[in-house]
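Give me the fold.
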Amino acid sequence: MKQHVKAALLKNLGGQVEPLEAHAGSLMQLVLRISDCGTWRIDLAGYTCHWSPASCRLHGLDPKNCTLPLDRAIRLYHPYDAKQVARLIKEAVIERSGFRYVARVTRPDGHMRLIEAAATVELSETGKVESLFGIFRDITETCAVRDIADSRGAALRSIIRFSPAPTAMLDRNMHYLEVSKTWYEFHRLPPEKSIIGKSHYAVVPGIPARWRVEHQRALRGETIMRDNSVAAAEGKTSTNSGSIVLPWHTPSGSVGGLILMVTPRVQMQSNAAA
């Protein structure tokens, strides 16, 4: 494969390769090794696909027979995805440009996989597209992990939104990501005016300095439980109640922010009466 083709393909994968074009071949080998990828080439003269053994294995095919007609290769994908792949190949030839796609493949054993492809074009001396070259990558597990993380995040937000106790989810900068209806009630805030994205310290300006310190401790992974009164907006305090400050974690395990929860059955009274 020509050096400029390798560099173009790497760039299509999202890399910044301009200063390293002379090493495109070595970079390509590293990409294939690290990402467990397979290569492929479409010869437009005979509309034939030439796949590497790894590409065949990704699609559930015998790696000993890695040459197949283009139409058969496209039919390996889900019918809807196959139409999109055929369209992208046609547009690549007309526009002389590369493409990327993710398509569903059902292997002979019945397992469905998500295959990502990135491609670039190879031009003849006259500027005509003579072939397409690309990389396949199985991203099934990556997408599964992402879906699980997204579903867990959505579930956590739903729990907070409908919590009977005043509860809020904040990012590391103490800006609101999600709050319960009871949070608005506790702080006597109009529910029609969303506080999502606003600073907790701006919404509740009367927070004691020692509690701000506790927030920083919680951002380092500590869970804080208070048994004393809880500050609220508009100069109010809640007696006979406490609060919990705990960190929530991202899929990678790092602290993404805080969850603040006031214990139920709060009783509101003014500071002056306290």
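Confidence is low (pLDDT under 50) at residues 3-24, 265-274.
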